């Protein structure tokens, strides 16, 4: 049908343009490294995010987030142990000399610049301050470290860096009120948040559903091929192959080109990321989401509403469309529009995940790898792609291009919509646990291939490849989240862990069972042709009659 072909094109366009975002946690990550300033005595604190809660005239007001310095005393982790202390503005503002104002355990606010961080902290402590807030001259946070030749590091007050906007707000509070107090504390993140468990289940469940749908379609196509060969033995050759309609198989060349195209698109996103460009991505995501949700609902409901699913009407531009598709389409469109309108609200992640999962399942149904060779090339290229744009790109662009694009740092909004995400429910810093579409789609192509092979070869779960590939993917994704927590929430390239587990399992298992050559080249087991069997049985019967 024209409508189905159009849907396939839209889904494929979504694949090319929206794939391969990293698995990461968004919770105000610090963006600057300090490899040239290692720890040393007096300057050995771990970098931690710090909450700065304010009170104006005794009434609780805004809360800001800063980062603790390498030097100074550690900041308390529990809110109940943090003192509510009066805030004062340094005079001079940079605190590069002894402050003129008399302090009695106040928290002093100073501006960055003109002297070292440790100099400011030493002067603030000497003036009687209980802590020092250093306001950055940029919007982002900056790690305060010590120079290698510094010696005056016996600083007994905590030092915290705040972004420029937070400093401006605090100064405004001080100008409008005579009484401004602050409370500094750094709550610890839980080792594991329930959001990561649900995200893991979502990723594994999505691949599971898509794989069974893909395998069922492949088996139906094989049955249809056998029927055609039986009914037209003289017209169809022995090597005739019938593929499911609307299915696109990836070639080795297209697998390599995919990574090139994805890299170019990532650079475009990085350079042009802005609010208007993000709106364009939202539109593309909605188009793909509508098509994905519609395809999934039609396939599901057609099992009970076979009559409406098999009755068609001609629609201009779309051709023949089933009545079931027409009935489902308005719901899908409205769902996408509602999500787009309310995408910045706290509950919008639900709609984004529903549309995203439907799109992923649909793409895994449409796009397939024909054999293990193509799967190895695709996942191998994606493996290096992920590593390069998460880690190596820092050397070229002074920041991780993949992480910046995924978080939407340059757009002023919450990031691109091509992610599955769940809010971190028990994290005091909030934020989301997220996983990119590519971390599900690319391994999903290989796992769906393994189940199609198992079904065509009549292998049970234990003797087949799907169960072990699925287990390997789940384990690789689990290790990704372990690494994520060990790295304090900094983005991790999930394919770095998933590809070796998933691809390595199939390669080693295929080698051990003697199926590697078939998996690598043909991608499906050798099946006897029905018309050959029919011809042989007829010949035998004729010989017996003689």
Side by side, the strands of the main sheet go 2-3-7-6-5-4-8
Structural class: alpha/beta
Report strand %: 5-15%
Report how far apart the termini are.
51 Å
Biggest sheet overview: 7 strands, mixed, barrel
Beta-strand segment tally: 14
Total helices: the number is 16
Q: What's the multimeric state?
A: single chain
Large-scale geometry: elongated
- Spell out the helices and strands N to C: HEEEEEHEEHEHEHHHEEHHEHHEEHHHHH
Low-confidence stretches: 1-34, 236-241, 532-546
**Helicity range:** 40-55%
Mean pLDDT, as a whole number? 83
Report the radius of gyration as a whole number of Å. Answer: 30 Å
Please give a structural write-up.
With 546 residues, the chain is of the alpha/beta class. 52% of the residues lie in helices and 13% in strands. 40% of the residues are buried. The protein has a seven-stranded mixed beta barrel with strand order 2-3-7-6-5-4-8. A three-stranded antiparallel sheet has the order 1-14-13, sandwiched between helices. A two-stranded parallel sheet has the order 9-12. The two termini are 51 Å apart.
Summarize the entry for a quick read.
The chain has 546 residues and is α/β, with parallel strands linked by helices. It is 52% helix and 13% strand.
